Amino acid sequence: MNPPAPDPRTLAAFEAAKGFMPLDEGLALYAAATEAGALGLPLLEVGTYCGRSTLLLADAARRAGVTALTVDHHRGSEEQQPGWEYHDPEVVDPVVGRMDTLPTFRRTLHAAGLEEQVVALVGRSPQVAAVWGSPLGLVFIDGGHTEEHATADYEGWTPHLAPGGLLVIHDVFPDPADGGQAPHHVHERALASGHFHPGPATGSLRVLRRG
Ligand code: SAH
Ligand code: MG
């Protein structure tokens, strides 16, 4: 059976969007979201940025008749601040002088015709997780990459994952030469918890199933 494919309009918007998700990993995320969507529960992303990966959750959510949720304070991660490696001056709000990816995110969703499938949660991930109260079919962790942030995302959101739901983690680099270690540590912790079964790996994307 062929893997499920996103709508061509979704893919065009994905290619045009700013962000940090290569196509092969995006398609693996889409496959996981399609599978998790069958649970009939919302799909949640931590780390919206400009909506590149959100598009794929939204497309899968539309097909499954569920909602995609995406959490971000929209002020950028450490490595995206001015002077750092991943800074993009186009996403600075000139009025307040800080990053603001929310307007760009909204344009991304609009371009794909996927605004109605998505609820944007604007705030700090642990603060949103602390008030969250309903089960999720998928949790995609792609927010802050410090140990503090990645750990808080894991601890805050995985308790909301329904049995059979999927935990997806981006930027898992077992070799420190390839990238930061916090997402890798979260992945190892999930496996060691005994609550998750390992699933497919594509690039730095890892899929685990909650038992
Ligand atoms: N998923 C995106 C990339 C996300 S980049 C893509 O595929 O293109 C990481 C994002 O996490 C940034 O936008 C940053 O603002 C957000 N972030 C970092 N720490 C956060 C926190 N503690 N709470 C909410 N958002 C956070
Ligand atoms: Mg990432």
Automatic annotation (TrEMBL):
InterPro entries reported for this sequence: SAM-dependent_MTases_sf
Any GO molecular function: methyltransferase activity
Superkingdom classification of source: Bacteria
GO biological process, one term: methylation
Keyword Manganese tagged: no
Pfam families: Methyltransf_24 (PF13578)
Keyword terms: Methyltransferase, Transferase
SUPFAM superfamilies: S-adenosyl-L-methionine-dependent methyltransferases
Name used for this protein in its record: Class I SAM-dependent methyltransferase
Taxonomic source organism: Streptomyces oryzae
